[in-house]
Amino acid sequence: MKKIILTVTAVLLTLLTVMAGLSGCNAGDTNKPGPQLPEVPDDEEEQTEVSQPVSLLADPFFAAGLDLMGLESSMGTATVKRLKYGSGPISWKLAQWWSKYNLKDGSEMRTGDKYTISDSSKLVEYNFTDKSLKLEVNARHEFDTYNTKAPAKWPHLLLEQELTPVFMLEEIEEVYAGLDFTLNKAVNQKGTDKGLHAQFAWFIYIVNRNPESPGYGNFLWFGFNIYDSTREYAAPTQLQDTAVEKGNFIYTVGAKDFLSSPIAAGEKMSFRVNMVPYVKAALAAANEKGFMLNTAYEDCAITGTNIGWEVFDRWDVSITIEKIALEIAAQQSDG
Questions:
Q1: Span between the terminal Cα atoms of the chain, in Å
Q2: CA–CA distance from 254 to each of 72, 76, 79, 82 (Å)?
Q3: 315 or 241, which is more confident
Q4: Edge-to-edge, what's the strand order for the sheet holding 219-228?
């Protein structure tokens, strides 16, 4: 929110008495013109002071490195290998849930302006020049054949971050989620049009953090469904998370709501969205379906985020993230 500073320009002019004998003038000569007053604008002058947005993300360019997690989500967030290619503290984790292969045992290289780690099905590449990060899953090596129904487990390649400090939503008027990215490839390796898809999505964790609320601890998977390999636009979703027992509610915004055109390989895409109205809609939808009960918008906080691939079938897919932002809009100031 911009701060508007109103200034009123006032001009104070002291009329000097012209002393007799100077430049041939005398005090009684009323025909001589006096000093001219400068013009005062009719309207008040407006000045705008622009404040910078506040980033909720640490290391938004992934410059320090990544903490690699294991192959099973049951292992929690324990680091199995530190991918330290830059300086400073590492803020991002890299999830590879349920892949057949472990990047911990993969090949690491640093050549020219790039750091790369890869295994038989996955590749992660950081570009030091433009500070971009590539996430690639070649799922033809993950599945032996195409899937006629959803697999019990499927490979993930996700960037995750726990946010500190936690920001309560009642203190925030606008929160902007923004992404610049390029789809490098999405190749159908199933040998058929049947089967399932690969998706690239961004989730932001909305959690009831009000200890006085009966719904304290309630968790909502709120997200942007960015890419679906089988659709022109990734569809919105409202459903229960079935990956874990008694899963939480998942609410994703469909790509048509925030992308101006379908995603095509090789084309740079971007969006920037105020997520507050969508979060309020998500909480209402969750409540209607029996989730996030006894939880108001004001009870909730943004506690973390993840972004990346979930691949349900034999697709070879790759996206490069050029910029990611999760920002609180400039706040009003009394100063």
A1: 14
A2: 28, 29, 33, 34
A3: 315
A4: 79-83, 66-69, 92-95, 156-168, 300-311, 198-208, 219-228, 249-253, 237-240
Selected residue with higher pLDDT from 29 and 318 = 318
Radius of gyration of the chain measured on its C-alpha atoms: 29
Average pLDDT over residues 42-49: 45
Residue 184 pLDDT exceeds 50: yes
At 241, the pLDDT band (50, 70, 90 cuts) reads confident
Query: How far apart, in whole angstroms, are the C-alpha atoms of residue 43 and residue 248?
Result: 56
Which CATH class for the 54-328 domain? mainly beta
Contacts of 231 (CB under 8 A, 6+ apart): 197
Is-contact 121 142, C-beta < 8 A?
yes
Q: Residue 144 is encoded by which pair of tokens?
A: 């032996």
Residues 6+ apart with CB under 8 A from 46: 4, 5, 6
Reduce the DSSP state of residue 110 to 3 states and report it.
strand
Q: Cβ distance 277 to 297 under 8 Å?
A: no
Domain ranges for the chain? 54-328
pLDDT at 39 over 80: no
Contact 161, 303 (CB under 8 A): no
| Mode of pairing for the β-strands spanning 249-253 and 268-274 | unpaired
Interatomic CA distance for residues 20 and 330, integer angstroms: 60
Q: What is the pLDDT of residue 75?
A: 85
Report DSSP state, residue 280: H
| Tokens found for residue 288 | 């209607």
Query: Tens of pLDDT along 279-317?
Result: 999 999 999 999 999 999 999 999 999 999 999 999 999
